Structure formats: structure tokens, C-alpha cells
Amino acid sequence: MVRTDQTIVLDFGPRTLMNLIKSGVDRHQITHILFSHFHADHFSDFITFFFDAVIYTKYEGGHRPDLTLIGPKGTLRLLRAIMKTFPSFASPPFGVTLKEVSTKAFTIGETRIFPTPVDHVHDLSCVGYRIEHRGKAIAYSGDSQYCKDLVGLCANADLAVLDCSFPANRPGPAHLHAGQCGQVAQEAGAGLLVLSHFYPIADRYDVKAQAAEKYGGRIRKGKDLLTITL
Ligand SMILES: [Zn+2]
Ligand SMILES: [Zn+2]
User: Fold this and answer.
1) How far, in Å, CA of 12 to CA of 36, rounded?
2) Are 184 and 151 in contact (CB under 8 A)?
3) Ligand 1 mean position to 58 CA, how many Å?
4) Which residues surround ligand 2, an ion (CB under 5 A)?
5) Fewest Cβ atoms closer than 10 Å to its Cβ: which of 51, 110, 155, 174?
């Protein structure tokens, strides 16, 4: 979740709804969700989030602002299918807008958002997002392999949150390993690197030290409810 003049959620994987509740943020004020891609670990909890929003507004007398759901090519097809699958999702008492993005920047309030397609798997579009507000920039890789567009997305960002699925000594397909996370942050000149999206094997090695072999800046290992103020 990124808070600027807006409250924006980046992806909606397992545990996100419970973490939003634990964080004390009013989930019913979230107006924009940016999806990187539609592997289950990036959107599965959106279904419970949306169900919760419908219950809140339809049956508990609650009010929520309209919701805009943004993602890469394939977003309309998948989210429309979800809306059709669950009868209670059909006509929520708040507006829902679906939007597909590729490379075109857009603005929400005073927040500027730059999506960039990144290389993940060949059969699914994936975008990373760069969010800028009042001279600060954060970059979020989504799921990505090493690619020049990812380095560009992170260029001089104050914070880069990168997919660190694998340790450097046990690399795997479709994702960065810890050494590549360090490499991307170094080449981009990022101010702070947060490693995220750990497969179980990544947790068995010191991925922070591995990233530090390639990157001279500050590194933090991501965890649920980690909060960073820029
Ligand atoms: Zn993925
Ligand atoms: Zn993933």
C-alpha cells in the first residue's frame, strides 16, 4: 500500500485484506488498486476484499467511494469474469471502473503513476509501477526477470520494491534473484532497496547480504506490515 494524497494498493495477494485491517487503514476508503499481473499470489485476496466491500455497503449501511481497478492487458477479461462468477458482485452500490494500462502514465489526484511492462512469463502481461508524489518516487517491480525496462522504472527512485523470489546461489525462472535485485538497484541509482516476494528457498539464505554484494545503498527485507516513510 502506498499513501500519497491517495491511498493506493499495489497487488492484492493472500493476507492483504487481514493486513489492511491490522494496519488500521480504513479499507473502505481505498479508491485505486494497481495489479501487476494475474497470477494468484497477486490478486487472490481481492475477491475477499470486494466481497467485504459489497457486504459493507449493501447490508451494513456503509458508504465507500468508487473503486478503480487497474492492471495490464487481460485485466478486463479476468475481473469481468470474477464479477460475473459471484452473484453478489453483480451490481455493487458503488462505482467500479476497470482500466488496462501499458506504458502510458496517468494521474490520480496529485499522484503520478508510470506503468512499465516487465519480463516475467511469456504467456501473461506483467507491469511494474512507478509512483511519484511531491518529488518522491517509488518503484514496484511486480514479478520480473532482470530487464532494462525494470532498471528504467527504478531510475533514481527513493525506494525500489523488487521481486526477490530466489537466492543468488539458487536462481530460478521468471523472477529476479537477490543478486539481480542488487544489480537493478545499483544500475538504477535507487535510494533504498526493499526485497520482497520470497519463495521458501529465498528464506533459507541471507538474501540481503547477497543483494549487498551488488548494491551499495540501504537494503531492507520486506515483511508484512513493514512501514517506510520517505
Ligand atoms: Zn507471477
Ligand atoms: Zn508472484
Assistant:
1) 10
2) yes
3) 33
4) 41, 143
5) 110
